[in-house]
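Dear colleague,

Thank you for sharing your sequence with our group. We've completed the structure prediction you requested, and as agreed, I am returning the results in plain text so they can be pasted directly into your records. Please verify that the sequence below matches your submission; if there's any discrepancy, let me know and we will rerun it promptly.
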Amino acid sequence: MLWLKHCEFGPRKDTQECVRASDCPGGRKLVSRSFAYCFPPGAVCCEKSIEEPKAKTCGTVTPIPRIGVGVDSLQCSSPWQVSLRRRIDLNRPISKENSEHICGGTLVDNQWILTSPFCFYFAGAQDPAEQIRDNILIVAGDWNHVLDKEPFRGANPEQEFRVDRWNVHPEFAKGSGVPVNNFIDITILFTQGGEAKYQENAFVLVKLDRPTTFTDCVRPICLPDPSDSSCGSNTCRITGWGHNENEDLKDILQQATMTIFSPDACDAIDYYRLGANAPARPERSTCARNAAGAFPCVGDQGGPLACQGNDGRWTLRGTLLAKLSCDENTPLPVADTAQAADWIKTTIQ
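Please find the predicted structure tokens below.
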């Protein structure tokens, strides 16, 4: 049970009577004798018992994250970040050693991650003959891809998982006539309508083959309510191991601060930049930008855009969408999780 401080004023009593446990109404307890003395005679300061949320540690971080512009993150400062890895040698079983990082995802429950279809199919099925469950390894608690083991406070934080099943958003690729089952189907979408075709409703929920164990380095992020908006917030960040200026994947998980905009603001920005030639924004998407020019690249897609609330918890506000070019001069398109929150919550229940 979680105890929340709750103070009430009852009938006037002397200070000694005020601090008796019997002065607390049913279902509540006294905070402490010394704490109660901080209030006038007649004040009863109690704590009320409430039910914990299903994932009580969602959105919390044990280390204090260092926010910067395209900088190394602190280990375990984004404990919801996962790495989707693809098997290298298809003739050998998949393992951390026989796999390479492809893209990112976000832990949203003790056994579910959210990523993009582009990321998921590129990692798992680059052609129709490939079996997704054989080719994807999902690693939670990962941070440094160079280190085989990454001790944190004396323990190895990494947890490895396989795919149990997956659910693609029902409106992904709608109207295209293309049943998407592998990455070749994604490329067909692109030939039909460019990047926007695989950026619309771009969500896939992946169930892990077993529940995660919550630790300082592995815990879920909070999900937004459909009405949530972080428009204009600069307490947001993206994370990933995507390509650097030398076209190499980063060894250490990177992070960059972002300002997120509402969908209407994104449309206005595009119109200001491109006028009547501005493309239509993909459905269930919004945009964000880093003022100093940091931007995601290949290997970052599917990862989180997380925003910190006034209560200190982090909420998943977006999933990074794949782009053919890494361009810091345009707003970053992100799949807007608030617009898909009901589907996410229904699927993982």
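Summary note from our side: The first helix runs from residue 15 to 18.

Kind regards,
the structure core
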